[in-house]
Every structure is written in C-alpha cells, then in structure tokens.
Design goal:
Helix content is about 70%, strand content about 0%. By secondary structure, the chain is an all-alpha fold. The longest helix has 22 residues.
C-alpha cells in the first residue's frame, strides 16, 4: 500500500510540474515529465497485477532496487493482447470494431 501512495504522490507532483512548465511555455521539458508520468502509471499498473513476479519486484522496488522500464512496459502491454487491454475489455471500455 505504501508503494501506491508514493506513486500516486509522484503522479500528482509530476502533474503539477507539468502544468507549470506548460504555462511558462517549456514544451520540451513538459514532454519529459509526460514520459515520466507514463512510466509511473505503468509501474502502478504492474504492481497492481497481483502476479507472483510483480509482487517480488514490488518488494525489491520498496528496498531501493530499480525495475527495468522495458520489463514493466512488456508486462503492462496496451496492445490487443496485453493484460490492460483485456481488463478494459471486460469492463466494456473498448470497442470491438
């Protein structure tokens, strides 16, 4: 639960920084924050998957280890075969065109 609070806090502060940068016209710097926000959101989703591997990685992350973003992106895939897409499909949030 501590990880969720920490990552949500990170998202909130990143969002605040993003708004400030955009208001001042620092568009390039804002894109860096946007990328960081995506990675934070992916990490939240990865830890929320309740798979054995993600639980082990959560413990490692809480102890200061870095979880490779490429590993997280692979597990939290948003394509038609990824777990996020299937979850959204179950909830009726995707179209079946």
């Amino acid at each position: 639960m501590a990880a969720v609070y920490f990552l949500m806090g990170r998202l909130l502060t990143q969002g605040h920084a993003l708004l400030k940068l955009m208001q001042e016209g620092f568009w390039t710097e804002a894109t860096i924050i946007i990328r960081s926000m995506y990675e934070t959101q992916w990490l939240l989703e990865y830890f929320n998957m309740a798979e054995h591997e993600s639980e082990i990685d959560l413990r490692k992350w809480l102890n200061g280890k870095i979880i490779k973003p490429s590993k997280v992106r692979k597990k939290v895939s948003f394509d038609d075969n990824g777990p996020s897409y299937r979850t959204k499909q179950k909830m009726g949030a995707t179209s079946n065109n």
